[in-house]
Amino acid sequence: MGNGPGRPPAAEAYLRHLRTALRTAPASERREIVDNVTAHIDSSLSSEPCSDADIERVLDSLGPPEDIAAQASRRRSPSSSRGDLMALVLLELGGLVIPVVGWAIGVVLVWTSRTWSTAQKWTATLVVPGGLGAAVLAWMFLPAERTCIIAGSGTISLPLKAGCVNHGVYTPMWLRLLVAALLAAAPLLTSFTLWRTSRTRRLRHEHDSVN
Q: What are the pLDDT digits (tens) for 47-75?
């Protein structure tokens, strides 16, 4: 009765519910909790035969999966506010100070933090790679002038004027502004959300510690 196929359906449903309740916990912590609860259930139901009342008693003794997840969250102390702030600053501005490397250091700090869930860490990594550096690069490299051909002057770059024939890709100013604004706003909004999460978790942890 102790392993997978022989486990009662009610116990399997409880474990699925527990995994869902722990979805925001770090993977290693989630695995450890689920393994411990699974071992407890298997050990408690190892005797044969096992009635529905026995199964219900064992699951009731564990409590609702949400309570287990909440207790685990309270025990998990968040990272220091200074460390979280440094991670977010490097995530946004590191790429401007040291291209690529500065941002990458911010990503590493985000992933080593105990404050944020795996989903939040993936969001911080993917929205937008490079942080504000991506907005600066977009502004710099989107062509702002037309490449023109003027008789007797060869091919030069200057705004479109009389006698100048369009000879290349041109990005209107409004489009450059829009792209740069979106690339800047997305990571800033992500960092703001992560900072609010960090602050809320820290305050909750301090409150729980006092109580």
A: 767 788 888 999 999 999 999 988 887 66
- Cα distance between residue 115 and residue 117, in whole Å: 7
Residues 164-178 as b or e (16 or more Cβ within 10 Å = b): beeeeeebeeeebee
The backbone region for 47, taken as left when phi is positive above 0, alpha when psi lies in -120 to 50, beta otherwise, is beta
Length of the chain in terms of residues written: 211
102 burial via Cβ count (<10 Å: 0-12, 13-18, 19+): buried
Please list the alpha-helical segments (H only) found in 76-172.
81-97, 101-112, 118-126, 132-141
Residue with tokens 């991506």: 134
pLDDT of residue 93: 92
Hey, what amino acid is at 198?
S
Q: Which residue has the tokens 């096992």?
A: 50
Q: Where exactly are the structural domains of the chain?
A: 4-75, 81-210
Nearest Cα neighbor of 126 from 168, 209, 183 is: 183
Decide: helix, strand or coil at residue 76. coil
pLDDT per position as a tens digit, 12-39: 999 999 999 988 777 888 899 999 999 9
Question: Running DSSP on this structure, what letter comes out for residue 25?
Answer: S
Q: Which residues in the chain land under pLDDT 70?
A: 1-5, 48, 74-80, 144-170, 205-211
- What is the C-alpha to C-alpha distance for residues 4 and 12, in angstroms, rounded to an integer? 8
In whole angstroms, give the CA distance from residue 99 to residue 155: 32
Q: Can you tell me the distance from the alpha carbon of 150 to that of 99, in angstroms, rounded to the nearest whole number?
A: 38
